[in-house]
Amino acid sequence: MTLNIFFFSITFKKREVSLQEAAQQEMVEKLYEQNKDRQISMQHFMY
Fold it and tell me: Cα-atom radius of gyration of the chain, to the nearest Å?
C-alpha cells in the first residue's frame, strides 16, 4: 500500500495600486457607464 501526501500553501497578497492606475480605472468605469446609459437611451428611442 502506497500513501502519497502533498502539502502546499496558497498566499494572497493585496496588490498596491498606484495613483495613476486608480485614476485610469476610474476613467474606464466612467466611460463604461456613459456608454451603457447611451445604449439604454437608444433602446428606448427605438421602441
Answer: 23
Question: pLDDT tens, 1-47?
Answer: 677 777 888 888 888 889 999 999 999 999 999 999 998 888 777 76
| DSSP secondary structure, 3-30, as one string | -----------PPP--HHHHHHHHHHHH
With CA atoms as reference, report the closest residue to 15 among 7, 6, 25, 5.
25
Model-level pTM greater than 0.70? Answer: no
